[in-house]
Design a protein that fits this description.
Elements lengths: L2 H26 L9 E5 L5 H14 L4 E5 L8 H6 L6 E5 L5 H4 L2 H19 L6 E5 L1 H6 L5 H9 L6 E5 L5 H6 L2 E4 L20
Parallel strand pairs: 1-5, 1-6, 2-3, 2-4, 4-5
Length: about 200
C-alpha cells in the first residue's frame, strides 16, 4: 500500500471511529426498551400498504401473530394475501371494504362497511396474543368521515402498551399523525400509470 493510500485509509478509520462514537452515544441515551408503536404510512406516493405488509412479514418472521384489517379494499386477490395464508394461525386477515369509493357510489354502504371494519379492528386489537395490527386504508375512511376521528384516535392511543399498529392511506388527518410514534410520507415522483401502464401483478397487487 502506498503512503497516500495508507494515509487515506487511516483518515477513513478515524472518521468512522468518530461516527461510531456519536452513534453509540445516541443509542445509549435511549432508555425505553419496549413500546407498542403507532405507525402511519401516508402521502400520495406508492408503497404505503406495501411497507405495512413488509412489517407484517417481519413480525411473522419472529413468530408473532399479526392481524390485518383492510378498509375500502375488498374485492381484489392480492399477492400478499396469498403469501400470508402460508403462515396459518399466526395471520388473521379481514378485507372488509367493497372497493374504491368511486366504484360503490353509495356513501351509506361505504359507511356501513367501514364501521364493520372498525369493529373488527377493535376486536383484533383486543386479542392479547396479537403483536401487530395493520389497519390498511383507514386514513381514507377518516378522510371521508365514514368514521369518527376522535373515537378512532382515542381507541388507538388507549390500546394496550405492547401492541404495534400500522395505519395506511393518503391524507392522514393531523390528529392521527400527532398521536403517532412514526409517520412516513410516501412521495409521488414517478409512476408507470402516468405513462399508460396498467397495474402489474406482483407489483400493485
Amino acid at each position: 500500500m502506498s503512503d497516500a493510500a495508507e494515509t487515506e485509509a487511516k483518515r477513513w478509520r478515524e472518521k468512522m471511529a468518530r461516527r461510531k462514537a456519536v452513534q453509540d452515544a445516541e443509542v445509549s441515551a435511549k432508555t425505553i426498551e419496549k413500546k407498542g408503536l403507532l405507525l402511519v404510512h401516508t402521502g400520495p406516493g406508492k408503497g404505503k400498504t406495501t411497507a405495512a405488509m413488509g412489517l407484517g412479514l417481519r413480525m411473522l418472521g419472529r413468530g408473532r401473530p399479526v392481524a390485518i384489517v383492510q378498509f375500502i379494499k375488498g374485492a381484489w386477490s392480492t399477492g400478499e394475501r396469498l403469501a400470508f395464508t402460508r403462515f396459518g394461525d399466526l395471520l388473521t386477515w379481514h378485507s372488509m371494504g367493497e372497493g374504491f369509493t368511486w366504484e360503490t357510489q353509495d356513501r351509506a354502504r361505504d359507511v356501513a362497511a367501514c364501521n364493520r371494519a372498525w369493529d373488527e379492528a377493535q376486536a383484533q386489537m383486543a386479542r392479547p396474543e396479537v403483536s401487530l395490527v395493520v389497519l390498511d386504508e383507514l386514513c381514507i375512511a377518516l378522510r371521508y368521515e365514514y368514521l369518527d376521528l376522535a373515537e378512532v384516535v382515542g381507541v388507538l392511543v388507549a390500546r394496550r402498551p405492547d401492541l404495534h399498529v400500522v395505519v395506511t392511506g393518503r391524507n392522514a388527518p393531523a390528529a392521527l399523525m400527532d398521536a403517532a410514534d412514526l409517520v412516513t410520507e410516501m412521495q409521488a415522483v414517478k409512476h408507470p400509470f402516468k405513462a399508460g401502464v396498467k397495474a402489474q401483478e406482483g407489483i400493485e397487487f
